Predict the structure.
Amino acid sequence: RWFSGAETNQLATGLTEYLEVGAGSAIVTVTGNDRVHSGTYALKQTSLGQVVSSKDNLNAPTLFVRDAVYFQVGANPTVAFDTLVIATIETGGTQMVGGLYSHLATDGTLTLRLYDRNGIIAGDSTPIPKDTWLVLDLRVVEHAVYGALTARVNGTVVLSYTGRNTGSSTMSRANFSGGNNTTGSTTITVFHDDSLVADNGASGNPTPLPTIYPANGIVMMRRSVPTPLPSPSLNMWTPAPVATSKAYVWSDTSTTA
């Protein structure tokens, strides 16, 4: 399980809580038009390519991704377009298994769409509000026969598809994006906060499909502790050396992060 509220206030390699950071993403506080869901900081994205990812190696057949998202939209676009907001990524590569996209119509209506590895799955959600915080959930099951994708907004299912071939491997991480300033003569600025990625104990058995969503929560603060020498084993129940605190398995960055 991985979580982030951007509370380390860092996007630098080795210090940030994210695995990968696309150029242009920024951490912001509540100033001007910038928005924060909880704590002090949030992640801001304004254009295509500004993608960040969770830590890797979850390697699960089912992933649950929760993300507090704020869509700040400019003028109505001249052409409708889709923009990726959340995606689950297949283990060992960059293949998207399931994705949650925003769709902005020419009349300014904002909806959500689900994509799998083969492209868009037909259908839009009911319109979602702009300029307010929404808690989005994306559940993806990777399976050649029982593959499934579900999207929720503030705890309510808005899109759900089952019985799809979503692949036959596992998923290792989630990507977060959403900004767009190049399509339809308008802009979408997206703020992410209180993000969570979990397998929630799901096994490889696709029947019944795992549907127990993680409990809701917020990230108020995140600070690290130094890694001791000698380094402990990554076993939180029987840490080695014996004198090593269990806390040390959670972080290997400096206390100044």
About this structure: The CA atoms of residues 59 and 163 lie 21 Å apart. Residues 202-208, 244-257 have pLDDT under 50 and may be disordered. The radius of gyration is 19 Å.
